[in-house]
Amino acid sequence: MHIHKYEKYFLVFGVGTLVAFLIILGIGAFHQGSHPNSGKKTLDYEKVKEIAPFDNPGVHKVEGKDWDYEVVILASAFYYNPPEIEVPLGAKVKFIATSEDVIHGFEIAGTNINMMLEPGYVSEYVAEINQAGEFLIVCNEYCGTGHTLMHSMLKVVD
Ligand code: CUA
Questions:
Q1: Which of 3, 43, 76, 99 is close enough to 117 for a disulfide, judged by CB 3.0 to 4.6 Å?
Q2: 92: closest CA among 70, 123, 109, 73?
Q3: Closest ligand 1 atom to the C-alpha of 147?
């Protein structure tokens, strides 16, 4: 009964492949971490208001860095702190943001600046501000009843 022998062989081979696949999957998941943003800086979001730089949201001029301004943003349902951002035209700006409660978005309409703000994680984006005007900042992640009201403004002054 050679056929049975081959069936057995293929069965073992099949199970072995499955086990190998699961091991690879397991290692892969472990290696990348269970969180989708393992590469980001983390913090204790419940104490975020006491943790620098989020203890001082707003626009800060900086020296000796690759950017001129740091804009620290703390998002919560359903506000941004600061409620308005003003930077001069041509400034290189690093946006540093997080959420103190649920996932929020931070999209500056008409630009390619679009970040997801997650509690416990720091989102950063460096951009050169090369267009004067007022840009609406909107939350593009559904965050609750006040989601559609959640907005801020970027003012770029010449
Ligand atoms: Cu915050 Cu939607």
A1: 99
A2: 70
A3: 2
What are the mean pLDDT values of the chain's consecutive 10-residue runs (158 residues total)? 63 61 50 48 91 97 98 98 97 97 96 95 96 97 97 97
Distance of alpha carbon 44 from alpha carbon 94, whole angstroms: 22
User: Which CATH code of 2.60.40.420, 2.60.40.10, 3.30.365.10, 3.10.20.880 fits the domain covering 41-157?
Assistant: 2.60.40.420
* pLDDT for res 5: 64
- CB-ligand 1 contact for 137 (6 Å cutoff): no
Tell how far the Cα of 120 is from the centroid of ligand 1, in angstroms: 16
- Rounded distance between C-alpha atoms, residue 81 and residue 152, angstroms: 9
Question: For the chain, first and last CA: distance in Å?
Answer: 87
Q: What does pLDDT average to over the chain?
A: 86
- Could you tell me the residue ranges of all domains in the chain? 1-34, 41-157
Q: What is the pLDDT of residue 139?
A: 98
Measured CA to CA, the distance from residue 43 to residue 8 in angstroms comes to: 53
Atom of ligand 1 nearest to the CA of 103: 1
ipTM passes above 0.95: yes
Distance 103 CA to ligand 1 centre (A): 7
C-alpha 106 to ligand 1 mean position (Å): 8
* Ligand 1 atom with the shortest distance to the CA of 139: 2
